[in-house]
Design brief:
Shape: elongated
Largest sheet: 5 strands, antiparallel
Helix content: 55-70%
Structural class: alpha+beta
Oligomer: single chain
Order of helices and strands: HHHHHEEEEHEH
Length: 260
């Protein structure tokens, strides 16, 4: 018999251990967020003790301010990744895998930008000048990547509006699509919507889907099923009969074998 030392995790089922670990993940992220806030407060307090970094006086305060600023960046990054992953796990049974992935990407992006800005402020970096330069850079980047960004934002709108879901049989009608496309929704990604049509799998940009008229397939129309995965082809499997036939033919070929 075992004592009261606690459960033996090696003997517990894998599913039970996974559930216990899944329940403890949010607490780790919450603790990381609390530590990040405390580190930011400590860095701000130490930063008020000296005028500028790399100044001759108040070396101890400068070290504390820099160390706590780095600690804030680490804890905030861990909290962002953990909480965004937890949000995806909670939303996936409700809105689906594709929509929950979009929410996770959005949370990671917002958390990363916030962490970077606060860290720069704690290090006494002039964020205003960086934001002005970043605004000009973002204008040029936005012009260059206008189509890609429009697909991403259209995907967020589709996430909120939810005109259809994975598995629905829909038809899209728009001039940009050269008429009408009908099929079964196989995937709603961050930039494309994949439809299983009679001609095969079609990827439609989210911006075109958002601008199209969406409706169900006409009555009596049989929706195409998603393509089944192809079985793996074993190299050399087809070479066996050919080699056997060649061997048989070689056996009856004149001038071969044991005939002299």
């Amino acid at each position: 018999m075992r004592g009261h030392d606690g459960p033996d995790w090696d003997e517990l089922p894998v599913q039970v251990v996974a559930k216990v670990r899944a329940k403890t993940r949010p607490w780790k992220s919450i603790i990381a967020l609390v530590l990040a806030i405390a580190a930011a407060a400590a860095s701000g307090w130490a930063r008020s003790q000296f005028p500028h970094f790399f100044y001759g006086e108040q070396v101890v305060s400068q070290v504390i301010a820099a160390a706590t600023a780095v600690a804030f960046c680490v804890f905030a990054s861990a909290a962002t990744i953990g909480l965004s992953g937890r949000a995806r796990e909670v939303l996936q049974p409700v809105v689906g895998a594709s929509h929950s992935a979009v929410v996770r990407y959005a949370l990671v992006l917002i958390g990363a930008v916030t962490t970077l800005v606060v860290t720069l402020v704690l290090f006494d970096v002039p964020v205003g000048q960086l934001l002005l330069g970043g605004a000009l850079t973002s204008v040029f980047v936005g012009i260059a990547a206008q189509q890609a960004l429009s697909n991403v934002f259209a995907g967020l709108v589709l996430l909120l509006a939810r005109p259809f879901k994975v598995g629905d049989s829909v038809r899209l009608r728009a001039g940009a699509l050269s008429g009408e496309i009908g099929g079964t929704v196989n995937e709603i990604g961050i930039t494309y919507v994949r439809l299983a049509t009679a001609d095969g799998m079609v990827s439609v940009p989210n911006s075109q889907v958002l601008n199209a008229v969406v409706g169900p397939l006409p009555p009596g129309t049989r929706p195409p099923a998603p393509p089944a995965p192809q079985p793996a082809t074993v190299h050399g499997a087809a070479a066996g009969p050919v080699g056997t036939a060649d061997g048989a033919a070689g056996a009856h070929r004149p001038g071969t074998g044991g005939e002299q």
